[in-house]
Automatic annotation (TrEMBL), chains A, B:
Coiled-coil annotated spans: none
Species, as recorded: Streptomyces dangxiongensis
Record family assignment: Belongs to the ROK (NagC/XylR) family.
UniProt-recorded name of the protein: ROK family transcriptional regulator
GO MF term list: DNA-binding transcription factor activity
Domain HTH marR-type: 30-81
Pfam families tied to this protein: MarR_2, ROK
Residue ranges of the region described as Disordered: 1-22
Length: 402, 402
């Protein structure tokens, strides 16, 4: 009797699905989907034993899921087993798909992911979006989306939703970009600018990157702090497998943690923020490089070649990251810190000084730091998978579409 | 279709109660308790309409709750209403009670709180526990607990559980004090040292203080950062009405957030941690005072009298708190910051410089700072209420005791 004492609300108060017979059925549909999804393929009997329902109850649920195109039967299981042969079930490779899109500072990207988690179509356009108005950017993005959707539809898929990753803060309404400094967008509602045919979610790229790490990162636990960078430095906090969003949806602003409180002024109004030491622009200046596209690639290349100026700049950035992360780790006690986005590619030169700060400033064992294998792909994949997850988590929502 | 996209786990995966008919019944029992508790008194029909169940279903649940001693009937409602008169229900003032206990650096305290949330018995012993071994301290505490329980029992209450607040880090097992620097306790399992008759939970005083603020603080929202101090500086993060505990149970270590990374060394291994500027010891030294008990009282008294040395020391502490809180607020985006514990009493002299830092370093409106009205009472009340909440959240657990 330890944890239950701290349940601050009546059990169930935070759930999406109502606590009725119908809600229970919807949750059980989700359990079936997740059980089959986790196993790859599974008989009805195996599903029943895994989720603790009767074979009869599971069969009713499975029949609906097959009718909606979410599960498919792989044919009878191999003979030789005792009892009536059951047909193995698998998550359908046709049917609903998640459409993920990314508005990057230097690129646009779109992909379609099926319920099995496989990328089935993809399109990318390189070129800066810095300072461009939202309309032309979203028009280009819409063209890419139509191209990817057409390709997905030819493969028997249909979009269950569209999720867009942006390099900025997004309001909790899930479609308004409150502030994207590197695009120079403010209070931009993407709702009217994106195709209206599918449910839309817009979120910060760091959030989608963290969700991708949670869902796709091998061995990533359910409690971690995900640090990423495109131009600015963002973070996302995952607790018990859930993203911590904050009251306004602005949680994760690690880039404006004061590292040296009397340091250089920051556009945010503060002084000595982490971005003044470890942001792309700060590192570029410290390394004595000119502004250019794909600065991260250049930094990695130069550091690899042994350029001492670049290496020193990255060391300094690692130190600043380590100081900021010490504060974050003390506050959150995550199981691990994951370096994603552009930081993943620079980690060989950032990590040593980062870890020196983190371990030197911590009583007891320091929080381990892990480098994301998804790197810059994280936000796009996280966006597409967020749609897929929504279907797996509440399969009944697609009933009317199927 | 915004938030559901981000549900990282199948709905219900995080719940305590199983998703079965029996689990549903237990959750509905909790709904009835919370509905009556929130309203003060309520007829069966009003309960049914508030929680969306039929009158018949509610009556069955209510009968059990009355039988277990959790609800009582106040007699028929006043006449003049249309329909058959219903008997108003209220949460029982007899039956289960929460026993809260606090091991402070300078005191021990125990109280009993009934299901209505009223303190029905209380005992305090002043005197330092600094450097004392766990055994004599817990023996004294046990004597106080027996005294409070005896008084509660005379009032028709029985202890549903015991919750103990400690000034240190507690493992997620809920009974081992990993580190309580000001008591000099390390890896102390309180399980065998406390009376074994009741379910035991041990937690950090900052956590219990935050829970008290959540449950009892008028107008406190469900997302806040609670900052408190006894000797060290602790914080607790409440998100969506739940305490964020961290992987090891160590979340909330705001005191070791680096404020000036090259500042004075801290026993934690770091440099320039918040505690080096805003901890009781640091403020005492900066104010030029000798060590003594109830330093906070003395600081408040001197500041009130206009002692410029003390005021300057508190101003500096407020600045350091503001720097650390800027980082925390950027990371968590809470709705408010609540100053509790000893900080509440010093807030008139801490807040101006704290708020200057917080607003000066934040883009957009600064996170509001609120002073807790519970102050030093928070941890003890939070402990006792955590037991009460556990009963309200799953009333069926007391069925066999009643």
């Amino acid at each position: 009797m330890t944890e239950p004492l701290h349940e601050a609300r009546p059990p169930g108060a935070g759930r999406t699905l109502p606590d009725t017979q119908q809600g229970m059925r919807r949750r059980n549909l989700a359990r079936v989907m997740h059980a089959v999804s986790a196993a790859g393929s599974l008989s009805r009997a195996a599903v029943a034993s895994r989720i603790g329902l009767t074979r009869a109850a599971v069969s009713t649920l499975v029949d609906d899921l097959i009718r909606w195109g979410l599960l498919e039967e792989l044919g009878p299981e191999r003979p030789g087993r005792v009892g009536r042969p059951g047909s193995a079930l698998a998550v359908s490779a046709r049917g609903p798909a998640g459409i993920g899109a990314e508005i990057g500072v230097d690129h646009l990207a779109v992909c379609a992911v099926d319920l099995r988690g496989e990328v089935r179509a993809r399109a990318v356009r390189r070129g800066t979006n810095r300072g461009r108005a939202p309309e032309p950017v979203t028009q280009e993005l819409t063209a890419l989306i139509r191209q990817v959707v057409a390709e997905a539809e030819r493969a028997g898929l249909w979009p269950a939703g569209l999720a867009v990753a942006v390099p900025g803060l997004v309001a909790r309404d899930g479609h308004t970009v409150v502030r994207a400094p590197n695009l120079d967008w403010h209070d931009t509602d993407l709702g009217p600018l994106m195709p209206g045919r599918w449910p839309l979610t817009v979120d910060n790229e760091a959030n989608f990157g963290a969700l991708a790490e949670l869902w796709l990162g091998a061995g990533t636990p359910g409690d971690f702090l995900h640090v990423s960078a495109e131009i600015g430095i963002g973070a996302a906090v995952v607790v018990d497998g859930r993203l911590l969003r904050g009251t306004r949806g602005f949680a994760g602003e690690l880039g404006h943690m004061p590292v040296r409180p009397d340091g250089p002024p920051c556009p945010c109004g503060g002084r000595g923020c982490l971005e003044q030491y470890a942001g792309e622009e700060a590192v570029r200046r410290a390394a004595g490089l000119e502004p250019r596209e794909d600065l991260v690639g250049l930094l990695a290349e130069r550091a690899e070649e042994g350029d001492e100026g670049v290496r020193a700049a990255l060391r300094e950035a690692g130190t600043a990251l380590g100081i900021a992360l010490t504060g974050a780790v003390n506050l959150l006690d995550p199981e691990t810190v994951v370096m994603g986005g552009a930081l993943a590619g620079l980690s060989p030169w950032l990590l040593p000084s980062l870890e020196t700060e983190l371990s030197g400033r911590t009583a007891g064992p320091a929080c381990p730091v892990k480098v994301s294998r998804l790197g810059p792909q994280g936000p796009l994949l996280g966006a597409a998978h967020s749609v897929v997850r929504a279907v797996l988590d509440d399969p009944a929502v697609v009933a009317q579409r199927a």
